[in-house]
């Protein structure tokens, strides 16, 4: 059923501005970055942003993983379907994010931090790899108080699908749990993205606190591997990891848990827990694309999540929602950074 355009989908995470440039081995080495990774910036990384702008012709693009997904979902859904929450500073970068979301039709309910600048993500492109180095700044100042403000909480109560980027587990677990409790209490769908290997690796306790509330978990094969390692699973095989996660205790017993793992150009694996204790395991192929059409892969996973969320909000079967995610990812990797083509293309 089509959405009636009443902000059914609410997303929470870290609003960031991406400073994206085409780099080289030398740049990666200088800052100790891996070609394909996502990390939190330390002191030694802080020169990267100016370096990218001055020496690598970097461009400024709206980023923040779940903010990219919110724009992606809204790209497909009817007007006024998506609202996004996070914390920015009162500065040019923050204004830029507000403009981009407004253009994409995403309603924002930002918290403004008066003392801290808007967060930045340095994106170093080398070939089809992207290295993300994030200085969260204001994004790290998100607080539960903001979510509980009556006009913001009204948006939460109104939404039927609550999506949290796993990156937010580094910022404000109480806000995530407030959304999770709301979903469990009112039988809404609570969806979490693993976001990056360092989340299951270094934020294991925070993740484990939230997992009992998760109806749908999204991730990729590297994140599945990192989860297997930190949770000492016997296998890193994505199907085995997914099976292990769907079986974890669940607060809302009215809904089975679903785990969706993308695997780059290999088929996307989905596992649903069945009442019988058995599993429904499916593999959905990706939409092939010629190498020459790829612009960059920054935001490909976020686009997948966005398309997938749109499918779920529209009440599509799981495999169709996955296919919508693959469709949007294919469109996004042909654009510069985490963006979607205009004029709009339509799925199906
Ligand atoms: C807490 N961290 C590290 C992050 C991020 C992040 N978004 C939220 N929190 N690190 C990178 N990103 C975003 O991921 C997108 C690509 O998937 C980048 O801003 C980029 O747009």
From TrEMBL:
Record keywords: ATP-binding, Kinase, Magnesium, Nucleotide-binding, Purine salvage, Transferase
Record: active site: 302
InterPro entries (alphabetical): Adenokinase, Carboh/pur_kinase_PfkB_CS, PfkB_dom, Ribokinase-like
Listed GO MF terms: adenosine kinase activity; ATP binding
Pathway recorded for this protein: Purine metabolism; AMP biosynthesis via salvage pathway; AMP from adenosine: step 1/1
Domain Carbohydrate kinase PfkB: 27-344
Annotated catalysed reactions: adenosine + ATP = AMP + ADP + H(+)
Family to which the UniProt record says this protein belongs: Belongs to the carbohydrate kinase PfkB family.
The organism's taxonomic lineage, starting at the top: Eukaryota, Fungi, Dikarya, Ascomycota, Pezizomycotina
GO cellular component, one term: nucleus
Official protein name in the record: Adenosine kinase
Its EC number(s): 2.7.1.20
